[in-house]
Amino acid sequence: MDKQELVIESSPSVQATRPGTEATSSSNPATAIVDTGCQPFSITPDQFMGLIDPKSPENLVALGGIDGVIAALHTDKARGLSTDSSSLTSVVADGEKAPSHQNSTSSITISDREQFYARNVLPKTKAKSIFQLMWMALQEKILILLLVAAIVSVGLGIYEDFGMEHKDEILYDKNYEPYVAEPKKISWVEGVAIFVAIMIVILVGSVNDYQKEAQFRKLNAKKEDREVKALRNGETVLVSVFDVVVGDVLHLEPGDVIAADGIFLGGHNLKSDESAMTGESDAVKKVTLEEFLRLQEMEAASYAAHGGTDPAHQLHGVDPFIISGSKILEGVGTYVVTGVGINSFHGKTMMSLRTEAEDTPLQAKLNDLAEKIAKLGSMAAALMLVIQIIRYFVTFKKNGVTPPSAEIVQAMVRIIISAVTVIVVAVPEGLPLAVTLALAFATTRMLQDNNLVRVLAACETMGNATTICSDKTGTLTQNRMTVVAGTIGLNSRFIADVAEGDVNQRANIPINKNAILTSQINDNIPSSVVHLLHEAIAVNSSVFESEDDKGNTSFIGSKTEVALLEFSRNVNGPDYRVLRETTPAVHLYPFSSERKSMATIVQMGPKKFRLHAKGASEIIMKRCTKILQISNSESKAESSTPEVTELELTSELENHVNKTIISYATQSLRTIGIAYRDFESWPPAGVELNSDGEVPFSAVAEGDMTLISVVGIEDPLRDGVPEAVLSCQRAGVFVRMVTGDNIMTAKSIATQCGIYTQGGIIMEGPKFRALSTEEMDAVIPRLQVLARSSPDDKKILVGRLKALGEIVAVTGDGTNDGPALKMSDVGFSMGIAGTEVAKEASSIILMDDNFSSIVKAILWGRTVNDAVKKFLQFQLTVNVTAVVLTLITGVISDEQKPVLSAVQLLWVNLIMDTLAALALATDPPTMELLDRQPEPRTAPLINFTMWRMILGQAVLQLIITFVLKYAGMDIFNYNELPAHIASNTAEIQKAYLSIKTQELDSMVFNTFVFLQIFNEVNCRRLDNRLNILQGVTKNTFFMVIFVIMLVFQVVIVQFGGAAFKVLPLTGMQWLICVLLGLFSIPWGAMIRLIPESIFGGVRDWVNNTAAQKNELPNFESYPVHADLARANSMPNSVRSGRTNSIAGSASNVYPGAMNPAVQKVRSDLSVFRSIRGGRLSTDSDRSGHALNAGTMVPALVATSVGAPGWAPRSARGTPTHSSSQIDVSNSSRRSSVAGSRQNTAPPAASVNTPANHTSGSDSTLNEKK
Fold it and tell me: Which of 256, 471, 777, 813 is catalytic?
């Protein structure tokens, strides 16, 4: 639905008084206006709020009514504010621009208004500083525990270094020459190193959070900004909602979300939905204060006449107040702004409701997983703590020597630090960070791809969408409409001119055989008819001209109306503004998606009123009883003027017009009908007014009209739409077109897009709405186009799709699309053509209204999900390895020291929690992501492929680390003493072995880190493909972080010394460590090459796809039904060559699957695959069903033959509608079902569905019996 742009001129305003004189010279009866001294405004924000909350017409009357408010605000009802308009986008209103002259409002600037009444923005929530974020990060219990242990360690270290006596030690240099040295006072270093590690972890996490908040603030500012139409300097201009000030006169249109509080000035049939603000569900009609007071008097008189005595009785459902945050349902009008920002109703409400952002579903799921992993890590740490404490006390008791108490405390602290470090490593606090980073990165980049994400969860959900219900106009097409053909009256056809030298292809179409060119209309059509057509186009329209910064003018408004006005201008019609001035509008009915039309009533003379209507051509035609007939001038003298008559629109002529409409529709043209009707008075005599005192639309615009013309409007497909639809189908996403156009136009456009394909169904909204739930569920798997649909039809379709388990994305632009957008899993609103209601109901705004942007949203959604899974795969590998390694080596060690120290583990924790999250969360999307099917809702977070890689890499890392730790001395011959050492003293030999042991421990640490670094590269792929470096050069973050980790590791090992308890390594030792770490990449390739099929039921159990035991199979869920229907609805180009997809398997295994009889046989036979030679097969999934299957043998053939698919092809289809491509637009609701029950072939237009098969089969079986 196109947004209607209507601007209504208000009545002339009262002349505003000059600043400084209003308090004394005004004769206005605004007795309640207070003296504000030197302030430029005499009504305060609090007084204005007293009008709105609660609504108080009495206070408004006390302020002098609307004229008093206008005077106090120094504004003008007809001209709006007077400002410097050089920076505004001008929209020329009816008539010429008002002359520029100085008036009373010019001395008050916009800044004066903002200073006194505030800006129309809410105060920004105070952003948390980096130090606040660091403090919040430090609140984690694990880090607090580790911090306490570090403090104790530092305290004991200082005491040991400076509070105890130390004897000189005999040490050895590189040549193993002894020397006497004072003991190094470095016992405090480990505690300080833990402090530093904790600070790095906190700082990195806090910086990431800080940057993430800044990004989301920027996105939110973009999300909330929009433009509204205001009157300034007598012109209609577009201003940012943030720049609206008190005193502005704003226009209201259907679909607008009101930007500020105000008072209604005038308009037509304006109704507002204030349920979100006041809780009242009924629409509230807006009237001027004078009208309200009149209605109130009438209500009071009526109430008293019926014996009412309640003095507090009020008029309900009508008021003159416009409340910010509410939504315009219908009608148009203008209002003066009285409250903005924090001084508005919506602003005060929003200030009281400010809350912290909630976690997305993926974040919540990951938080839950992190808690479970932390519990397992805590159990391992507790086990390690108990075992080490027992071993420590047993050891020195066994030796009979009790060490000093300080040494015991130091040992206990060391054991506790080791256990706490295990918990730190086990807790995957990087998981929430990973999804946050992925979402922040994706939403920022999606904005560059014209997707403004309003709801973060939509980013994740879109990646697994299974179906898209798309609008046509502006989404699939360019929304650049042009009138290219038309028929005036009954037979006077015209086609658009083409450039000189070009061939006019439309002239070759049979219906255009005698058509004239657009430029020849004035010469061939009577001037009275041409003027009538121009008048109908100009007055029944809300389009105006816009002037850009370069001085170029263009029409702004509904694209359909723009096309009609441009057509009128191209045939040298009178200026639309002149026509609007000479025939003033007295009433209008804005476009409504329910009635598919709009109408305007204008006054032609003292006793002549004319209704001009336009809308969907077939609907307008049904409302007409007459049609213009222009006599064929060829049969008369050349100088004669063609005669114009009105013919009764008989059924024969209706068929003639219908053929015209169908001809245009098959050319992919949008057809618009234009009609009129004359009245002697308004309201017409004998017409009963509705409850609002208005003339009902149905009473004047749904009959007795005269058809003027049917025009065909071309809206070309957007570039890349067929490719985008094909990409969606590649990705397993079923694309449906839901449009208000007639069925022929919809079918033509859908075919061009690739949406309507062999095996698909096209249906009209009313027909679809009339189906039962069972019939809908049978039709929906093949429903590709829903034409002539209303927003309710779209909502019903979305509801049924969700009930069938689909993950649904919907596009919408109109106010009435809100319910469908809200109901869908992901709602896309149009950033250009969409109303504010639609945008508010949506999850993502398409900034360019382009369907291709939806494909980008799918890509980014899958990228976010993959980024989190990549990180999860990497981190769980480190979790498993580090916890097992620390636990086993700590328990085995005689000194109760694990192979990796606390500081070393904290460095590993930093790698896997923060740096890896940043590296793996920033991979850009690739087109390969479209080569797989969406994941169902029940899919596990970690699938079998991921578990296989996690456990496989953990096994490799444990083997390498254990072999290095416990066999490294022998492997590298470090136990063999060199000759010059072997001939030396025992102390020197001991020192040599001690140094080599430390070097080996350093190699173990170094190798372990390199195993993680190279496994990070390995984790860039989640599938079984071997190219793990694909696209790595496009991810700058990954490459930079990879280098940073390498550099830091070199610095730590070569210069970390006592802090990290490492010794510098030689070149050969470095080579060994790097090669061992690098081995994780070929090992990952080996794991990927292992066929998953050999794991059988384990894989199905992990992936949650195993069949339920002891239950009959659900035949309706087999591929021959819904999935296969989807596969056959895809183009052959998609189905061919696909692997691991529904479409690929279906097209290969079930050719011609749309034959319902074949479907029935295959569905039944699928059970018998598990029975061979009267015995059960070894397929465990089927073994439980064999006895049940045996009972089906007698009925198998009978039920299959009874299926309607056995009917001859000629009986099931017509030459124009094959059985695999069906148009059900004209089928009755029950025709196919009734046909099958009577054991007859269904009509050509019926839908062969599983539901129909069942009924047909049952009746046949009963007859056989």
Answer: 471
